[in-house]
C-alpha cells in the first residue's frame, strides 16, 4: 500500500533518471536503442513522447523477437533483457511497470506450481501480473477494506475516486417503487418471460434505442434529434469505447488523446486492441483547454515515427477537468480531422451532468446530416453517469457511418445488455415527465455540491479549474507537494489516502503532464460529508506546510 | 478529402474482414427464417426455426418463480429498498450472492461431486464473451487452439475475430461416434507444429455442440494427459451441462482433475446460464479458471461485458433458492428427454437416423443416405432444399466444420409441441415424396430431374418404400408477406 508499489511513469527530470537507468542496467539491445532515442525526443517532443516512443519501440522489439523465436540463428533472443525477468534494469522496470495494462508480448515465468517449465499465457496477462498496481486500484481496495460510514465506521476511507453520482438516486428509486412492478413483471398478472429470457438483438431492443435517443435529446436541451437506427447499445461505455477502437484502428495504429484524460482509456482503447495512445498535453496555463496546435504537433510527431493515427478521442464535458468544448473548438476539430483524414470519437457521457451556465454543444449538433464528414464522427454516450445507473450497464455508440454501425452491431454480442434491465429502462425513459424532473433536479444538486466543495478547498488555499460539467473538481495542489515531480504527487496521494483517509485520483493517473493536480469526485458525497472531507485534507496539509 | 470513397480503408481490419465467420450457411439459415418465419395461424407455411439452440421448455417455471418472488427483481415496492446499493454497483467482482449462487448451481449440475469456489467465478457477457475472454487471456495474435470438429459454428467468431487467433480443427469421425481420440489430437498438434503454428491449447464443448453427447471419463482423462504432456491449456465449454437428460451423466472437468496428477493451471471452464436455465437474454457468462493469473486477468476484462446488477440480483435470489433449482433441473431434463424422444423416434419412423445422444438442445441428424454424392456441395444442395422447399432451418454439418458431409444439427427445444408435429410432418412428406418421385422416374423425365437424382441413392432401405402420395404443391408455400419484426433477431 505504499508508494513503492507504484513506480512513476513520468518524471520531471526524465533525462537524468532515464539515462542513468540505461547505463546502470547493463543495456542489451532494447535499452541501447531506447535510451538515445529518448534523448532525441526529449529535445523536441516533450515528456510524454519521451515515454511513448520507447514504449512503442519496446513493443515492436518484443514483437520482432517473438516472430523470430523459432529461428535458431537468432542472436537477439538470448541477449534480450526484456525476455529475462530476473535481471531488470531500472529503465526496463519502468517500461514494464506502467500501471496501465500493457500488451507486452513477453512471457515471464508465471507459476511456481508448474512442474514443466513456464506456462505460456498471453501477453495481456503478463502485463497485469508484472505491472505494479496503479493508485486507482490501490485506492479502490482500501475503500473496500475500510469504507467510511458516518455512524458505523466514522474513521473509514472516504471515496472521492470513482465516477459515481449518488445525488439523485432517490428520484430513480421513487420512480421504480411506483412503476417498476409493471415495467418488469408486466401488469402483475401476465409475465412475458419470452420477451426477457430469450435471445434478443445483441445491439439492444429497438424500443430502448428509441427511448435512449429521446433521453439524449432531452439531456442536450436543444433541437438535436438522434436517429434510433444509428444507435448501437452496449453493456456500458467501456465496451462502447473498446468496440469503436476495434472498428477504427488496427493493432499498432494510434489515437490522439488530449490529457489530462479519463484514466480508463489505457484499458478501454488499447489493452486488448493493441492500439497505441498518443497523449496530447494540455496545460494549466490554458486552463487545460484543447489546442489544435498541440494536436497538430502530436500528429506530425506520430507520423514521423511511422505511426498511423486513426483518430482523436475527446471527452466533452472533459473528464477530469470538466471543461466544455466550445462550438468553435468543435468546428476546428472537425476541420483538423478532415485535413488529416481521421476519425473523431466524442465521449459525451457527462452531457446531462453539466452545471452552471456554459452552453454544451454535442458533436451531433455540429455535423449536418448531408455533411460528407458525418462518417468520421462517432459519439459515445451512456446512462451510468447521467441517470445515476452505473450498475445497469448501458452504453451507447451513435454513428452515422453505416460500416462502423454494422461492425459494431456484430461486436455487441460480446457485451450485450441484459434484457430485463432493458425492459425496465424502456419504461423509465419513456416517462418524459420523470426524465425532465430528474435532469433538472440532478443538475441543481450537482451544482450545489460542486460550489460547496470548491469553496471548501478555497478556504484552504487550494485552487481548482472551473468545471462546467461532470462529477469532478480538478484541483491544483502542486504547491503542497514535497517535490515538484510525480514522486511528490504520489507521496501526497499516499498521505491523503493513509493519513487523511480520503481516496482521490492523482493527476498522473489521468496522464496530466504537470504534477500536483488531483481529481475529486464530488457527486459521490452528501452535503454532510463535505466538512469531514475538508477537515481530513487539512489534517494532511498541516505538516507539509 | 473524399471520405466516402476511402471510407472502408479508414476502418480497421476487424471491422472489414469476415473472420467473424457469419457468411456461412449456418447464418444464411437465419436469414431464410427471418424473411419468412413460421407461425401456426399467421404464416403456417413459413420456415420453422430449428437452428436456434434455445431452451424454452421450462419458461413457465421461471415465470412462476419471478412472479412469486417479486422483491428479487428489485423493481417492485418490495425490493426497491435494495435499489440504492444495486443501481450503483459496478464492481467487476460481481455481487457476492450472485457468485455464490452460480458456484452452487455449477456444483449441483455436476452432481455435487465438486465444490466450486465462488471467489473464482468471473462474469462475462454470455458464453460468447466468456470464450473470447479466455482466449484473450491465454493466447496472442497468431497463436492457435485445437478444436475437435464438428464444433460450434460461433467459435470461428468468438475465438478468432478480435483475438487474432487461429483454429486448428481436430477431425473426429462418425466411425468412432465422433469421439475425441488421442491419436487425432497428436496428429493435429504435430501438423500445426510442422506448419510453425504455435498451439496454445485445446478447447472442447462438453456436452458437445452440435453432437449432444457427453464426454466419458476415459476420453477426458486422455485429453488432460495430452494437454499436460504438451504443457498447453484445456478450455472446457460446459454451457450445456444441465441439459443432460439421461445416462451417462455429465462429468465436469473439475471432477476429472481432482484425482489426476496434472497441472491445474492449465484448466479453465466456461459456463453460462443461457442454455441450462434458458436465459440467453440475461447475458450471463462465466469464466472459472484454476489459474490465478488468468482469473485476475479475466476479471479485469469483465469490464467489457459486465452483467447488469439488477440481473445479478435477480439471479442471485433465484439460484440460491435450492428447492426451486432442484425442481427446475429435474423438470427440465424430463421435458428435454421427452422432446428428444418424440423427435428422434419420429424421424426413425421415416428412416432417418441420428447420432445417439443424451444432452444438449439438439441432435445430430444423419442424412448421408440422401446425398447425391458424399461432398460438401451435395450437402449444401440438400440443405437448400430443406430450407427452401421443406422450410426447416436446420444447420448443415459443414458449418460446424464436420469432416464428413451429410450430417445436420437439429434444435428441438425452442418450439412448442404443435410446431414439433408440423416439423416432423414436413420431413415425412419430404422423404416420402422423394420415394414417390423415384418411382416415377422410369415413367417420365420431369423438370424435377434434380430431385430424382438427389434422392435416387437415398432409400435403399426397404421399409421406406411403403409410401403414400403427397402433393408437392402442399409444401411449396406462396411467398408470404406477413409483417415481421423490424428487428433482425440476434441469436446463437
Q: Could you explain the architecture of this structure?
A:
The complex is a heterodimer of chains A (545) and B (492). By secondary structure, chain A is α/β, with parallel strands linked by helices. In chain A, a hairpin with a 7-residue loop joins strand 9 (463-464) and strand 10 (472-476). Chain A has helices at 14-24, 29-67, 76-79, 90-96, 123-130, 135-145, 169-185, 194-197, 206-220, 237-248, 265-271, 292-304, 327-340, 363-366, 402-411, 419-430, 432-459, 486-498, 529-544; strands at residues 158-159, 231-234, 254-259, 276-281, 309-315, 343-347, 377-382, 395-399, 463-464, 472-476, 502-503, 505-506, 517-521. Helix content of chain A is 45%, strand content 10%. In chain A, helix 7 packs across helix 16 and helix 10 packs parallel to helix 11 (265-271). Chain A is built from 19 helices and 13 strands. Chain B is α/β, with parallel strands linked by helices. Chain B has 18 helices and 13 strands. Chain B has helices spanning 3-6, 13-16, 25-35, 59-68, 83-87, 96-109, 126-138, 155-160, 182-194, 217-230, 253-256, 292-301, 309-319, 322-349, 376-390, 417-441, 449-456, 472-475, and strands at residues 48-49, 121-125, 144-149, 166-171, 199-205, 233-237, 267-272, 284-289, 353-354, 362-366, 392-393, 395-396, 407-411. In chain B, a hairpin with a 7-residue loop joins strand 9 (353-354) and strand 10. Chain B is globular, with a radius of gyration of 24 Å. The relative contact order of chain B is 0.16. The interface between A and B is large, with 94 and 95 residues.
> What's the end-to-end separation of chain B, in Å?
40 Å
Which percent range describes the beta-strand content of chain B? 5-15%
Helix content of chain B: 40-55%
Flag low-confidence runs of chain B: 1-5, 445-492
Portion in helices of chain A:
40-55%
Sheet with the most strands of chain A? 7 strands, mixed
Helix/strand structural class of chain B: alpha/beta
How large is the radius of gyration of chain A?
24 Å
Give the strand tally of chain A.
13
The strand line-up of the biggest sheet of chain A is 2-8-7-6-5-3-4
The main sheet of chain B comes to:
7 strands, mixed
